[in-house]
Structure formats: structure tokens, C-alpha cells
Amino acid sequence: MKRRGLIALVGASVLGWGLAGCSPSDCGPTAQTGTAAVAPEKPIHWKLVTSWPKNFPGLGEAPEKFANEVKRMSNGRLQIKVYGAGELVPALEVFDAVSQGTAEVGHSGAYYWKGKMPAAQFFSSVPFGMNAQELNGWLHYGGGMELWRELYAPFGVIPFAGGNTGVQMGGWFNKEINSLEDLQGLKMRMPGLGGEVLKRAGGTPVTLPGGEIFTSLQTGTIDATEWVGPYNDLAFGLHKAAKFYYYPGWHEPGTALELTVNKKAFDALPADLQAIVENAAQMANQDMLDEYTARNNAALVELVEKHGVQLRKFPDSVLARLKALSEQTLAEVAANDPASKKVYESFSAFQRKVAAYHEISEKAYINAR
Ligand code: CA
Fold it and tell me: Distance, CA 313 to ligand 1 centroid (Å)?
């Protein structure tokens, strides 16, 4: 009643906005172009589903920050409610939920959809592949994003880079890994292409959502696990279930998270709200990497000094064999799937070029420092 009264006051140019059954996305621009700067626009409400426990450090905070920033930049015109894993849909059904429109947005990792499309794995992390800085370069300036959009288009889903963990840790083990043979028969939580490599090394990879890792490791359902890095691994208490903490995370050298948006919902937004969604995603993408950079080192000190975690580096001989197996795995994935081949070629060509330059820039500097 209040709204009808207001519309009557501000005149015919905004009448369409007040009609019954008019959705906010259809009517928003009409309201904006009217003379009534004071007319309150009915907010658009979206749902965002994630693969993480609600407000989990880093991973779970990124979608909250994204939603907050969208609300702030849109002055409340687009409001996004964030659901933790299992609250609306199970952790590993985020992509389907966004594709079907159960939720307008998802926050997850592309490698969880490898059963649906093996090529998706290249957009999260590739064993011995690019680090965070390089991957972001490929996505935004090297043709990666165009390939990612093309891959998800048949599902009515638009991907955005939605965070990056940086180089992950190699994982938690209850025994030392002195040779590749020590991985044989090992049942280890490791998703994506890294899991495929582990399989070729004689291990049994298991994909589990984060929230199930600790109990699985503690009860012996799995023998070992990787998760993210010190900041996140400490939060899950993984040091209470395994003693040896290995580095480096050869299998996930700079894992990208994804913000996925239902295409119909995105297309229905006015152009300024679309720009806000894009820019909030870009913010979330960089923000996560910054936060991990700031917090991982302190968490590692706590794990080692307070909790007595045994920090170990994988022997060079083990890393060399895992690298050879990774090359073989990537070649096989590309040979068996045309979409993977196309993405892998773009990914590896970019990596070769950027790695050559990073030899004399980032790496040379870090060695010199
Ligand atoms: Ca991981």
C-alpha cells in the first residue's frame, strides 16, 4: 500500500515498477530511469551455495565477502544469502544447483566436476602446473577464462575466478614418505588431477568434501589426506589425526576457487548490477590469496611449535617421479577428451612461456633474497 502511494506521487515514468507480478530484474531499470530518485527499488534476492562449512576460514569467508561487497556496491539492490555445505545442497552438488537455478551463485572448486567434464580440472589446479599468479594471468590475459566460459556454457553457468589458495601443502601422513613405494596402497583424500596422479603412483585417491576429512582420517577410513595449507588445516585440526606434514603441494600449486553464476539470473540483471557481480568476484579472488599469504606462515609456526607437528619435505626423487607421472596423466586426460585437449594445450603453452620469464624474475629474486 505504501509503495502504491509513492508511485502515484512520482508519476507515470515509474508506474511499471509497481505492477503486480513485475519481477525486480525486469523493473529495476524502469525505476532507475524515472524521475523518482527517491523511489526505493525492490531488492533482488539471490542464494549462494558453497562446498565449505559456513564461514570456514578463507574458503568459506570468500563467498560471504563477495555477498557483502555486492550488497554494499549495489546499495542493497542485490542481496545474496550464503549457505554452507549441506544447508541447501550437498557440498559436491554446487554446480548442479547453479545450473538448475536452485541457487543463482555457487562457490566451489572446478575439479569437483571432473566426472561431468574432465576439462574443468584445469581451471582449479594442475599437478606441477601454474602457481596462483601465473594461473590468474592465464585466466584473465591468456585466454583461459574464454575457454572456461565455453566449457560451462552448455550448463547455463558463467564461471568467475573466486579465490586462490596459493601453493598448498603436500598433505598429512601417519608415516614418512621416503620413496614412491610408500604411496602404494595408500588411501588418500586428494581430488582432481592430483588424485589421478596418485592412482598411477599406486595409491587410492578419494574425493571427500572438507567437512568429512577429519573424521575419515581419525577413524582410519582414509590413511592420509591433503586439504589446503596451514591456515585451513589447523582450523580442521588435522594435526590431531596425523603427525607428518609434507610439502610442497605438488598436486595443487595454486588452486583457483570458482564463483559460478546462473546465466539466466545474470542476464536478467541490469548492466550496473552485472558489473558489480564481476567486480565483487575479482575482489574475492585477490582477497583470498592475500589472506592466505598473510596467515599461512603464522599457522605453520603454531602447528610445529605448539602442536609438535613433524614438518617434512618430499624427497626430490619422489617429486621427480610424481612429476613424470603427472606429465603422463595430463597427456592421457587430453588424449581421451577433446575439451581437455583444447584447454590443456592453452594451459601448457602459457605455462611454458610464463615459467621461462619467471626463471629470471620471481624465482631468481626469491633465490637471491
Ligand atoms: Ca587441496
Answer: 17
44-165+254-293 and 171-251+308-368 in the same fold? yes
Q: From ligand 1's centre to the CA of 335, what distance in Å?
A: 25
Closest alpha carbon to 262 in 25, 87, 21: 25
Rounded to the nearest angstrom, the distance between the alpha carbon of 227 and the centre of ligand 1 is 4
**What is the pLDDT confidence band of residue 242, given thresholds at 50, 70 and 90?**
very high
Q: Which amino acid is at 184?
A: Q
Cell of 353: 612461456
How far is the centre of ligand 1, averaged over its atoms, from the C-alpha of 124 (Å)? 10
Which grid coordinates are listed for 332? 592421457
Ligand 1 centre and the CA of 191: distance in Å? 7
Cβ 165 vs Cβ 125: under 8 Å: no
The answer to whether 204 and 185 have CB atoms below 8 angstroms apart is yes
Tens-digit pLDDT profile for residues 299-317: 999 999 999 999 999 999 9
Q: Rounded to the nearest whole angstrom, what is the distance from the C-alpha of residue 307 to the centroid of ligand 1?
A: 21
So where are the chain's domains?
A: 44-165+254-293, 171-251+308-368
Residue 24 scores a pLDDT above 70: no
State which fold the 171-251+308-368 domain adopts. Answer: D-Maltodextrin-Binding Protein; domain 2 (3.40.190)
For 44-165+254-293, CATH gives: 3.40.190.170
